[in-house]
Design brief:
Blueprint lengths: L2 E4 L6 H6 L1 E2 L2 E2 L2 E5 L21 H9 L3 E6 L10 H17 L8 E4 L10 H11 L4 E5 L1 H9 L5 E5 L13 E10 L2 E8 L32 E3 L5 E3 L17 E2 L1 H9 L4 H5 L7 E4 L3 E8 L4 E4 L14 E3 L17 H9 L7 E5 L8 E5 L7 H4 L3 H11 L2
Parallel strand pairs: 1-4, 4-5, 5-6, 6-7, 7-8, 8-9
Antiparallel strand pairs: 1-10, 2-3, 9-10, 11-12, 12-13, 14-15, 15-16, 16-17, 18-19
């Protein structure tokens, strides 16, 4: 996952190289390859408003900052039909090429309003007829991207959080998660990629798309565990009866928004590494940061923390695994602990430092929890486990 910006007028390239946002360097920028009324297509090398120039593209590339091409004229342009799409795509391709953009790299065409896919479908058919479906991308809300992907009208997606209600399209390539941020005296928007190849390019170079290390899961891949809801969320279901599973408050267990996107992005590793959701999202700090939520899964807890207020794991995106830190005293067991965790924690009372981590075992279908400390010792509970498992736990505690 890479961090990037988009802007009308951005910081200098030296400022971009020095900037760190939540510890992440700027590795790409999304720049306009058009357009505004009065733009002179035969003067691409001259700075004209917000539009990218060859000189800017070369400078960014020389400093290792990749570019992503974006076409935007007016907010409602994509509502103007097939012919508008043809003209826009042809013009965007000319500017993209003049700025050193490789001929096989995509261009994202903006839908800067919240509309249904049918309102812009003809426009994107026009775009694809001009530059090819393999290069056709869309910028817009969850609804726009979700329906355009379903219609087979786009290959690339750049989603904005605006109008999306916290729901993320897992087939998208870039997520714009915050805007109107101030960096280096300029107003910029924050983005991160969720695919290794998100359409990035460097001046004059042919970019061979990287092989995807993980194909995101779709509902069809896990339909025995979930059913789809009208708002794009998934409800966990019983594998035998197909009925919704309930949480401790007797509410259906829902997987949605950024946490759903994060789970899908783990591909075939999602089930063994994270597991299925065991409860619904809960607010971590409702008073000060109502946007931050946790969701408990079978093997870990995932947290949605878009600005990394609570933690900033190295290389993490807006969703990360919660770090279960040491307890200075285990006289009080956190309410979120399972009964098994609670029993183990109380048996470990008195240890100066305890870190709880989860390991899988072939001896049980469920999981057990391992305790390690500076002075490892076997508890009565550990003594009751099978010999092979006790040996493994002892080896783990001595690492």
């Amino acid at each position: 996952m890479s961090f990037g910006l988009d802007y009308v007028s951005g910081p200098s390239v030296m400022d971009l190289k020095a900037i760190r946002v939540d510890g992440n360097p700027v590795t790409f920028v999304c720049r306009y390859t058009g357009y505004f009324s009065g733009y002179k297509i035969d003067e691409v090398a001259t700075q004209q408003g917000k539009v990218l120039t060859p000189g800017e593209a070369m400078t960014l590339s020389q400093h290792g900052i990749a570019l992503v091409s974006n076409w935007e004229w007016s907010a409602n342009r994509a509502l103007q039909g097939h012919d508008a799409g043809v003209w826009d795509a042809a013009t965007a391709a000319k500017i993209h090429h003049a700025c050193g953009g490789p001929s096989d790299r995509p261009i994202y065409f903006s839908v800067d309003v919240d509309v249904a896919e049918q309102a812009v479908l003809d426009y994107f058919k026009g775009v694809a007829s001009a530059i090819g479906l393999h290069r056709t991308g869309a910028y817009g809300s969850y609804r726009v991207l979700h329906e355009l992907f379903n219609a087979g009208a786009i290959t690339w997606g750049w989603q904005t959080y605006a109008w999306s209600g916290g729901v993320w399209e897992p087939r998208a390539h870039i997520q714009q998660y915050s805007n109107n941020m101030s960096l280096g005296g300029h107003s910029v928007d924050y983005n991160h990629s969720i695919k290794s190849d998100f359409g990035q390019w460097f001046f004059g170079q042919h970019i061979t798309p990287q092989e995807e290390t993980m194909t995101p899961l779709t509902l069809n891949d896990v339909k025995q565990y979930f059913k789809a809801n009208a708002d794009g969320s998934w409800t966990r279901i019983d594998v035998k009866t197909g009925t919704p599973l309930m949480d401790s408050l007797n509410k259906p267990i829902i997987l949605k928004g950024a946490i759903l996107s994060d789970w899908c992005a783990h591909g075939t590793d999602a089930l063994p590494d994270i597991g299925l959701p065991e409860g619904n999202e809960t607010q971590v700090d409702a008073k000060n940061h109502p946007e931050i939520v946790d969701q408990q899964f079978e093997r870990c807890t995932r947290r949605y923390d878009p600005h990394h207020v609570k933690d900033s794991p190295r290389g993490a995106g807006v969703v990360y695994a919660v770090h279960i830190e040491a307890f200075s005293s285990l006289n009080a067991v956190p309410a979120a602990m399972t009964p098994t965790m609670s029993r183990i924690a109380h048996e470990a009372r008195g240890l100066s430092m305890v870190r709880i981590s989860r390991i899988s075992t072939a001896h049980k279908r469920s999981s057990i929890w391992r305790l390690s400390s500076s002075r490892p010792r076997k508890s009565n509970w550990q003594q009751r486990q099978p010999p092979a498992l006790r040996a493994r736990m002892w080896q783990q505690s001595r690492r």
